[in-house]
Amino acid sequence: MPRLLSNLTMNVLSLTNAVAVGALRSSGLLPEARLDFTERLESTEEYNTLLGQDGSKRQVACRLELRARADLRGFLDPTDLERFMGFSVEHGSSVQIPGLARQAAVHQGWIRFSPPNGLQYQLEFLGDHVDRSSGSRRAYYFRGAKRLRSLRQVRAWSTLSGGVYDKQTGRRELDSVLFSAPAGKGPEALLAFVKSLSLR
């Protein structure tokens, strides 16, 4: 019953939002603008486990440097399935995982609000290792989420749990928990995130 009510509430909100966005568009009050933000997520060795193909495990530090952008009209419009409540990860974003990708550029990615699951992240990048058969660097993706339904909302907004997967095989390469910088300081991290938001 709680899940049914939650889904019903989201459907009502989406319909209301769609009507509001439509009215703003037709009146010319919804501007052509973009919403930008930056975020640094990181954690020490104790929070990240690199999983070897031989079954070995190695603790490593991890860092994500992210620049994200959303078209305001698409971001607010629930009929725009590609862009509603979502950000695209922009050039200048990077992944740092010793033993997998020391300094890898994110070449594709997105961040999306996805009730009731929270804030979803997916980032694609090339690792340090070269595939013997193709001669090219192995492709990976990070997938994770901030569970915003937690009762500890500040901690939920600043904690990203996820993993890194081999794009070709689907094998999980890393278990990870990352914190918005400054790490371990929830209120300061949330404030830094809010300050990074800009409308242009």
Short description:
With 200 residues, this protein is of the alpha+beta class.
- List SSEs in N-to-C order: HEEEEHEEEEEHEEHE
Mean pLDDT: 82
Tally the helices: what do you get?
4
- Helix percent reads 10-25%
Shape field: globular
Question: How many angstroms separate the termini?
Answer: 42 Å
Structural class: alpha+beta
Give the low-pLDDT segments. 1-10
Give a written overview of the molecule:
The chain is of the alpha+beta class. Helices cover 24% and strands 44% of the residues. The chain has helices at residues 2-27, 72-76, 153-157, 186-196; strands at residues 34-43, 48-51, 57-59, 62-71, 86-89, 94-97, 101-113, 119-130, 137-146, 159-166, 172-180, 198-199. The longest helix is centred in the first third of the chain and has 26 residues, at 2-27. The chain is globular, with a radius of gyration of 19 Å. The protein starts with a helix and ends with a strand.
SSE blueprint:
Blueprint: H1 2-27, E1 34-43, E2 48-51, E3 57-59, E4 62-71, H2 72-76, E5 86-89, E6 94-97, E7 101-113, E8 119-130, E9 137-146, H3 153-157, E10 159-166, E11 172-180, H4 186-196, E12 198-199
Antiparallel strand pairs: 1-4, 1-11, 1-12, 2-3, 2-11, 4-5, 4-6, 5-7, 6-7, 7-8, 8-9, 9-10, 10-11
